[in-house]
Amino acid sequence: MPSFPRVFLGLFCLLVAVLLLAPTLVVIPMSFNGNKSLAFPPVGFSWQWYANFFSNPDWTTSFTNSLIIALIVAVVATVVGTLAAFGVTRAAARTGGLLRALLITPMVVPGVVLAIGIYAVYLDAHLVGTVVGFVLAHTMLAIPFVLIAVQASLEVFDRRLETAASSLGAGRLTVFRTVTLPLILPGILSGALFAFITSFDEIIVALFITSPYLKTLPVQIYTSITRDADPTVAAVGTLLFIATSLIIVAGLLFGMRRGRT
Amino acid sequence: MTAIPDQGAHTGSERPTFLSRFQLRGAVWLAAPAVLVLLVALAYPLAIVVVRSFTDPAPGIDNYIWFFQSAVNRNVLQRTFVVAAWVTLASLICAYPYAYAMTIVGRNVRLALILCVLVPFWLSGVVRTLAWVILLQDSGVINSMLRGIGLSPVKLIRTLPGVIIGMTQVLLPFMILPIYSVMRGIDTRLLQAARSLGAKPWRAFVQIYVPLSLPGVYAGAIIVFILSLGFYITPALLGGPRSTMLSSLVQNQVLSLLNWGRGGAMGVVLLVATFLLLAIAAPLMRQKHTSNRREA
């Protein structure tokens, strides 16, 4: 490419990068606002909204609820999704393809349609506002992400290693534990991380199946935005932004060390 | 590790022996727990939505007649598609050059560009929408800057352009990642070959590179369009009464008016539109499977 279009391309990409990242950064100054307002520019400086997040039971319980639910979902969805990934990869090609398409549908079903359906079922089954209800719905939403992650590592996995191990006398379980599992572990771990984040961030279904006794963090953020201009949401946003960035940077560095980037 | 090879491609090389064929038959059952979860938490709830749309309050297609006869509903349906189209177009314009740049820069710059995509991709959508509320509101960043340079403030929040801007930014990573994953598999020697045969760089790019990148473009466009159709949080927080989208209407019917039949009928319209689009677009993306959410 000649140099003029290159410069133009560079400027354009800089603009897109700013568009991707900069708007979110606005929550940082707002989180230190001295006033109870989300109006810009913030006035004064205070840590009170962070203090509020860590002391106000509305925020602390919704945060722990989200954490507990997301951890259970990460475990359940990873086990179920990994088994499914084995099923999809090792079944006959056509069955596997069909199964994969089926298991990925939660990604494309419009959130609200799913939410009213689940809400209807949960009203009958008395699952509204229960941990079981949240875990079931979020596990369903997380399965596609685990499936994609684990399947990707299964597809580069050389099955002849399993044949070699079993020809040397290892039982199927031993083969899985000592050969297969260690090799696909990175895929399983990233699947678990995807499942955790899917549940931790999920909001649409959560808005329907929440109750005053069981709220998750996104629900608390959403109701806080719609109800009042409490800068605590900006403090939470800042904390989530920092946590997300750290996880991704760690992931990129890890990936770079493994030479896969 | 973004691209997932096609199903048929890898199974062809390893002919199953008798033993592994036996294993293969059993393998399908490993997916049983996942299928069970999907039946309980996806298929059954969706079936209930469909059934209620035909039975609540009375059996028949009254809810659908009501939906398509009301001018307000038809407007919202049309607006939902128009907004989805604008968001798809705007994010494509931003994403294509960006994804292309990701493939030609050095490793460190590429890492920075990937970081700029992945952080918003993984950050909670509610938080990112909150940022747009702060930016666009009447006393927000954009309007205080306009006032600062002596211009009159503009109405952005609760308007359609505000919704489109916010949704584009929230959905942009879903466009960039599939395009990038296809682009980095393109053999750039093809471009050199075209040029050595006398094609101008620009012509080589348009005639060789762009067609090869189209599967990624189709994948990104269909993902962004479908997600836009069903988008709920961002339009609900950034939009107003005159920029309502279908999802808000569904939510309103069910939660506020307790009208499951009408809400269900709207939901079914949204669902059918989504699956029709997928069925139409699937052959266009077939050349290469792309999956989002996997990078690093």
Automatic annotation (TrEMBL), chain A:
Q: Which residue intervals define the domain ABC transmembrane type-1 in the entry?
A: 63-251
Query: Where does the record locate the signal sequence feature?
Result: none
Q: Is Repressor there in the keyword field?
A: no
Record field: transmembrane:
63-86, 98-122, 128-150, 183-213, 233-255
Q: Which UniProt keywords apply?
A: Cell inner membrane, Cell membrane, Membrane, Transmembrane, Transmembrane helix, Transport
Q: How does it sit in the membrane?
A: Multi-pass membrane protein
Q: Where in the cell is it found?
A: Cell inner membrane; Cell membrane
Q: What is its main location?
A: membrane
Give the matching InterPro entries.
Answer: MetI-like, MetI-like_sf
Does the keyword section mention Transport?
yes
The record ties this protein, via Pfam families, to: BPD_transp_1
Which PROSITE patterns does this entry report, sorted A to Z? ABC_TM1
> What family does the database annotate?
Belongs to the binding-protein-dependent transport system permease family.
Q: What is this protein called?
A: ABC transporter permease
